[in-house]
Amino acid sequence: MTEKQWHAVKILISEFRDFCTSAAERYNNDTLLLECQQEIIQQFHVPQYPLENMVVYNKRLDELTKENDIKLILIGDNPGKNEQLSCNCRYLVGQAGKLAHRFFSTNPELNIDFDTEVIILNKSPLHTAKTAYLKKLLSAYEKKTHSAQLHTFFLESQTFMADFVYRLQSLFNCYVFLVGYSEVATGHIFEQYHASILECYKNNSKLQKKFLCFQHFSMNRFTIDLKNNYNKNTSLFENIIQLGSKHRKRIFSF
Fold it and tell me: How far is CA 195 from CA 142, 157, 186, 249, 251, in A?
């Protein structure tokens, strides 16, 4: 990074850390929220795991240095079982993360070091065992507390994260891979993220073209989708650009 980029990225990361810390102080020891999480875990027969962080900041950001050459921002959904463990507090460290890491390590022609040249973000820092449980968590908590405060935070977090990725991409002029798009639409769980991305990017056609959408890395959906749409007459990188652009145009209409 240049000195200017490094100074700017430290400010952005500090803002994100403060945002998560403030929310964590409110929710990490909220007994009613913990009860809701446990009820959902039992309802869907999720194997028990230690619930340690309801709001998760990505500590991997604190490991960035001026020497990191950022080439890609990768956006997942929300922190899962592994991500929320206090020994981790890092995004995309479960099975999907391993598949993502393997994809880049086995395709060196992309010239992207997943460990040092990729920033990983989420659409929200609010934890659930599976993204599909977010709606149920918000509903259960509202019933217990007779308050929409968690839902309000969830919406605010999506707006914050959309603005955060836009500002980071503006800083590095790099590609963004939004991985997992099924809930990024009007009427779906990440509706606010969808609206916020549209607002952030509406006047920046240059960055729009570098904002790409893909299926999840989990269950190898990213790789399968790429294989099913592969054009052997072009490079791997060009295939990725074409596929990600196709999905982006359908989802965001830009």
Answer: 24, 13, 8, 14, 11
Tokens linked to 170: 């503006």
List beta partners, residue 58: none
**pLDDT for position 167:** 98
Tokens of 189: 């769980």
Side-by-side strand order, sheet with 175-179: 118-121, 72-75, 175-179, 211-214
* Residue range 195-216, pLDDT digits in tens: 999 999 999 999 999 999 999 9
Query: Is the pTM of the predicted complex or chain greater than 0.85?
Result: yes
For residue range 105-123, what is the model confidence (pLDDT) as tens digits?
999 999 999 999 999 999 9
Place of tokens 């230690």: 50
Long-range CB contacts for residues 22-29, cutoff 8 Å, separation at least 24: 23/55, 23/125, 23/153, 23/157, 24/53, 24/54, 24/55, 24/57, 26/55, 26/153, 27/54, 27/55, 27/150, 27/153, 28/53, 28/54, 28/55
**55: Cα separation from own chain's centroid:** 13
Query: Helix and strand tally (H, E) in the chain?
Result: 9, 4
Amino acid at 103: F
* Cα→Cα distances 228→103, 212, 225, 243, Å: 16, 17, 5, 10
With cut-offs at 50, 70 and 90, classify the pLDDT of residue 48: very high
Rounded Cα gap, residues 102 and 69, in angstroms: 20
List the beta strands (DSSP E) in 71-144.
72-75, 118-121
pLDDT at 126: 98
